[in-house]
């Protein structure tokens, strides 16, 4: 994995993760279509987010680091390790410092990305500059140049920080089947956000965003969703 983290500090973080997080962690994944459920977060750790296969934690003594833990029985850890190996060092992506297994949990130690997801920006009425879209486009092109296939890139998996765009989740970048999520998001940004919301962004209730998300998922799986540009 990456060597741009002090070896002593990394060893301390590995030991801390295995002793205080992974030894006492209680999480379960009943259905791969639903987020992993964290039954108890060990003391000293904060849950940053839960996906369908893994959860991400932060220790208060290491605010610049995220520890991603895969739920028992859920695949993807090996693929994500390979994705980070291929990406290498790029400002729009996290970096993987270590990958290991402890107490039945497979986990990654990652550089933590700070900011707001595009999804959260819409809910809070935070402006999304065009530079963010350009940054993410360029980051995805870079991933393709490294032999990867950007997949599952949507509003909850991309982030704004200091006016720049970041890609948060790369776990599905080895999947070769086509994925139009990012192109669909850009289409919505150009057709709806820019003309109607960009000059005076206002908060959009989360229940509205959830309705949009569910409607989008329905249309993606039906013939009524157009692919015209």
UniProtKB/TrEMBL annotation:
The Protein kinase domain is annotated at 42-229
Q: Which PROSITE patterns does the protein's record reference?
A: PROTEIN_KINASE_DOM (PS50011)
The record's annotation in InterPro entries points to: Kinase-like_dom_sf, Meiotic_Drive_Suppr_Kinase, Prot_kinase_dom
| SUPFAM superfamilies with a match to the protein in the record | Protein kinase-like (PK-like)
Protein source organism: Paenibacillus prosopidis
Name this protein carries in UniProt: Protein kinase domain-containing protein
Any single GO molecular-function term of the entry would be: protein kinase activity
């Amino acid at each position: 994995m990456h060597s741009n983290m002090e070896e002593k500090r990394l060893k301390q973080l590995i030991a801390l993760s295995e002793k205080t997080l992974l030894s006492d962690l209680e999480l379960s994944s009943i259905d791969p279509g639903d987020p992993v459920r964290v039954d108890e977060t060990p003391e000293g750790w904060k849950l940053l987010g839960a996906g369908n296969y893994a959860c991400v934690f932060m220790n208060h003594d290491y605010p610049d680091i995220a520890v991603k833990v895969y739920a028992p029985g859920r695949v993807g850890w090996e693929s994500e390790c390979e994705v980070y190996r291929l990406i290498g060092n790029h400002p729009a992506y996290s970096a993987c410092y270590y990958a290991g297994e402890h107490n039945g949990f497979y986990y990654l130690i990652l550089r933590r990305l700070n900011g707001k997801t595009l999804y959260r920006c819409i809910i809070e009425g935070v402006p999304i500059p065009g530079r963010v879209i350009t940054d993410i486009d360029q980051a995805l092109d870079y991933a393709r140049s490294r032999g990867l296939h950007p997949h599952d890139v949507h509003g909850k998996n991309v982030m704004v920080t200091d006016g720049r765009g970041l890609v948060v989740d790369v776990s599905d970048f080895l999947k070769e089947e086509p994925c139009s999520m990012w192109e669909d998001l850009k289409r919505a940004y150009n057709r709806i956000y820019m003309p109607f919301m960009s000059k005076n962004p206002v908060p959009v209730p989360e229940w509205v965003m959830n309705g949009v998300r569910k409607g989008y998922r329905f249309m993606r799986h039906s013939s009524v969703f157009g692919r015209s540009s």
